[in-house]
Description:
Layout: E1 8-12, E2 15-16, H1 23-38, E3 46-49, H2 51-60, H3 62-84, E4 87-88, E5 94-95, E6 97-102, E7 113-117, H4 121-131, H5 134-151, H6 165-176, H7 187-205, H8 213-227, H9 231-239, E8 249-254, E9 265-270, E10 282-287, H10 292-296, E11 302-303, H11 306-316, H12 320-326, H13 330-333, H14 335-352, E12 356-363, E13 366-374, H15 379-391, H16 397-402, H17 410-413, E14 416-417, H18 419-424, E15 427-430, E16 432-435, E17 438-444, H19 447-455, E18 460-464, H20 472-477, E19 480-483, H21 491-499, E20 502-505, E21 511-513, E22 518-521, E23 524-527, E24 531-535, E25 540-543, E26 548-549, H22 555-567, E27 571-575, H23 579-587, E28 593-597, H24 599-602, H25 605-616, H26 620-645, E29 649-653, H27 667-677, H28 681-690, H29 703-708, H30 710-729, E30 735-740, H31 746-767, E31 774-779, H32 782-786, H33 788-792, E32 797-800, H34 802-810, H35 821-826, H36 843-857, E33 862-865, H37 873-881, E34 886-889, H38 894-920
Parallel strand pairs: 4-5, 17-18, 18-19, 19-20, 27-28, 27-34, 28-29, 29-30, 30-31, 31-32, 32-33, 33-34
Antiparallel strand pairs: 1-2, 1-3, 3-8, 6-7, 6-8, 9-10, 9-12, 10-11, 12-13, 14-26, 15-25, 16-20, 17-24, 21-22, 22-23, 24-25
Enzyme class: transferase
GO molecular function, one term: pyruvate, phosphate dikinase activity
EC number: 2.7.9.1
Amino acid sequence: MGNLTKTVFIFGDKKAEGNAEMKNLLGSKGANLAEMNLLGIPVPPGFTITTEMCKIYLEEGHDKLISIIKNEVTASIKFIEERTGTRFSDAENPCFVSVRSGSRASMPGMMDTILNLGINENIVEGLIKKTNNARFVWDSYRRFIQMYGSVVMNVRAEAGDFADPFEEILEKEKKQKCYQSDNDFNAEDLKNISKSFKQLVKKSTGKDFPNDPWEQLWGAVTAVFESWMNERAVYYRELNNLPQEWGTAVNVQAMVFGNMGQNSATGVAFTRDASTGEKTFNGEFLINAQGEDVVAGTRTPRQITTEGSRRWASLSGIGEDIRCRDFPSLEEMMPEIYQELAGCAQMLELNFKDMQDIEFTVQEGKLWILQTRNGKRTGAGMVKMAVDMLHENLLDEKTALLRVDPKRLDELLHPIFDQDEIIKACCIAQGLPASPGASSGRIVFFTEDAQVWSSKGENVILVRMETSPEDLKGMVAAQGILTARGGMTSHAAVVARGMGKCCIAGAESLKIDYKQRTIQTENLTLKEGDWISLDGSTGKIYKGKLKTSEGQLSVDFEKLMNLADQHARLKVRSNADTPMDVMTALRFGAKGIGLCRTEHMFFDDDKIMAMREMILADNEAGRRKALAKLLPMQRKDFEDIFRLMNGLPVNIRLLDPPLHEFVPHDEKIQKELADELGIPHEIIKKKIESLYEFNPMMGHRGCRLGTTYPEISEMQTAAILEAALHIKYEGIESLPEIMIPLTGTVEEMQIQKNIINQTAEKIFEQYDDRIPYLLGTMIEVPRAALIADKIAEHAEFFSFGTNDLTQMTYGYSRDDSGKFLPMYLEKSILKHDPFQVLDQQGVGQLITMAVQKGKAGRPNLKIGICGEHGGEPSSVEFCHNEGLNYVSCSPYRVPIARLAAAHAAINEENNRSITSRQNASKAICFENYHF
Ligand code: ADP
Ligand code: MG
Ligand code: MG
């Protein structure tokens, strides 16, 4: 353990041993609790047991952990006792604590927390005398048994039963007494419920519920450490790429009670709108409740601000007078508390320079802040907040750019429901617009069904009363999430926004029946499997499947993208084969075409016939005749593209796929073809059979076609350069780059180069005019990477075709990898799918080598990448670090690549300055304040 012997860090009364910088050791909750104390914000006193202790517990077990932390924990409990003037385990004047999880990155609801610890029947009696509030005391006790019972003692629903057994007891009691809500329980009811809870624990675990507060404390601390490894937490980390070895800290903190009556409350507040990014303070609260009630979504909370409350009421169709009477805001009910809360929120945002998600509790008219963290947000929210905070001078440009996760830009480009469709559609209910997006799918009610259905390719909407952390997998599988209960800060809403998934919460008018698997509205019943559509931006739920259309790009999005381009060194191009693709690519800001695959053009009706004629011809003369028909058609395609690109570079790859892909294998179509070409069917059939290859991907394709049939390369070169000349006469410039595919030897490169250059000269002579063009090759056969210096002598540019390069480096056929890749990923034999995330260790070495050798062969060699990886952020960063000139990806990923390119440049700069700082001062040490 060395000098890391300090295992516990205390905080309270505006002092703290930790601070916000210490997230690795204290977890983000613990570090921020300390920081809030240093800022002078009212926080109940407590202490944090370090993440190091989580590792000790998981590796060396319970006894070892307790032996290490026992003395410090005991002393720290004394610290809490002194600050609160109470005594742990004392019946007259008891001290209660919460035991809370909290790792480096926030994992909402994934691990466990226990409230009201330190209570037993003896203490209940004492506390009733002290507070004169029997209802509150019994409510606290029953809550403690419920939480401790399920978290520490593992009381679970019996197989086949869906409901939480504790909640079932509550529901039963409520029904029996004809109560409307939990708030109607009186002290006597709650006492009986506590008794039933204890019986449930005994029946389900065989153990008595522990009465000794110290036993409760050690049980809770170890249970929180244990919860780091629970299934949903492990899965959440996998999903979000968080290291499994971090471990969680444990925070033990004096309880404050939001359930002491009508002047007590609990809630969650956001400094900005997590869904849209707008700068409006917002949040939700419940009167006379404890913290977990709001996030669990079992009770629908009220709005903090009056403005928010009015907006909520109008969505729910509630008039202003009823709203004022039944659903007043915190601002209206407790104006002073509201002001104090808004002040704390503002201070926290300024301090952390990011949107804050804040938990608070009001105990008998006094405000306490219990947590602050950088709030989860949607992709659109991310962009808006980053741009706004830049304008507010809260962030500098680089930090603002780093605030937006490139992968999340995807969400902004997603389609929305077609306006015409919405007008015709049947809106069956209205909920809260918890996370934007437009999604349609079939109704499922359970996580398992969502997974099974979606694995069969079905689009599903997960419909729940409320979601719990156990539903995470179902939420991932679903297209959208709909809940009948809970608010904008419920688990479902927070997690959906974090995933960028469409979500509508709290659609109260829906009656969900898990047993029948139906949703009832006033005049309609929907069954499992029926289609519904969710509009997460308005909260409207529609029957059936609605068509979607292209969304609008926001002004903030454009601003952010332009800023990204200013910081990036890599240029971003797009792969585009048709004018349609080209337009999309330009809309998303592509600075060129990095790959135009000519073969897709040949599949058009008019071209495929001439193409087939060429393939089926017996000799060169026959091929030339057919190619002459193709030439004008292909020239026109290039003219259209050059015109749109208006002087930006366009990289055109010569014919690449094996010829058999262009001919029909169906007997009937073969016969039609025979009729059209006037050749007997038998001959056509034979010729097609002769094209058969055992392994077409490694067969007669790429430049092997152009080498055996030079007339194909000739025709394509002519089409490209004639097109460029033609549009030159329209006054439009062009910058063609002619790319040879699948080069593996210098000789292939030489032969193709000669064909292209000679054809070019012939055309230039004909037109008595010239066009500048570049001639280069793909690097996608490993051998080409190995001899890149020799190839570069003949090539003016390289473009890494990382799809083929990955395929051939691993020896995985991309078309057959479905048989083993999923299992490899599941068992972590491979960390990522190498066809999505560039394998830097292996394939990356070939790239590094080819770049070095290529530049040795030709110092001004232009280098890019055009595989799928060109739009994947970690691969883009790799390309930046290797000094490539550009990446090229599919049109919809262009914005992702542009931002990733800026991140790569900024990260490089930041790392450089960190290294120089580290060299200046060798060691960084923690400073501990002592009270
Ligand atoms: P999570 O990480 O899942 O949000 P928390 O540790 O924040 O879990 O706790 C769950 C709920 O209990 C929160 O609403 C929190 O505000 C509340 N809570 C935690 N500690 C206390 C405390 N000492 N007094 C009152 N409420 C608390
Ligand atoms: Mg919390
Ligand atoms: Mg290829």
